[in-house]
Amino acid sequence: MRWDAVVVGAGPAGSATALLLARSGARVLLLDRARFPRDKPCSEYLSPETTRVLERLGGGVLDAVAQASHARLTGMKVVAPSGRAMIGRFDRTGARFSFALPRTSFDMILRSAAETAGAVVQEGVKVHDLIYDRGAVGGVIAAETHRARVVVGADGLRSVVARRLGGVRTSSPRRVAFTAHVADVAGVTDVGEMHVGQTGYVGMGPIGGGVTTVALVVPVKTLKLRTGFFDALDRFPGLAGRFDRRRVVRGILATGPFAQWSRASVAPDGGALLVGDAADFFDPFTGQGIYSALRGAELAAAAVMEALTSGASLQAYARARRREFAGKWLLERLIALGVGWPALVERVVARLARRADLADLLVRASGNCIPARAVLAPGVLAGLLW
Ligand SMILES: Cc1cc2nc3c(=O)[nH]c(=O)nc-3n(C[C@H](O)[C@H](O)[C@H](O)COP(=O)(O)OP(=O)(O)OC[C@H]3O[C@@H](n4cnc5c(N)ncnc54)[C@H](O)[C@@H]3O)c2cc1C
Question: What is the pLDDT of residues 287-300, one digit of tens each?
Answer without folding.
Answer: 889 999 999 999 99
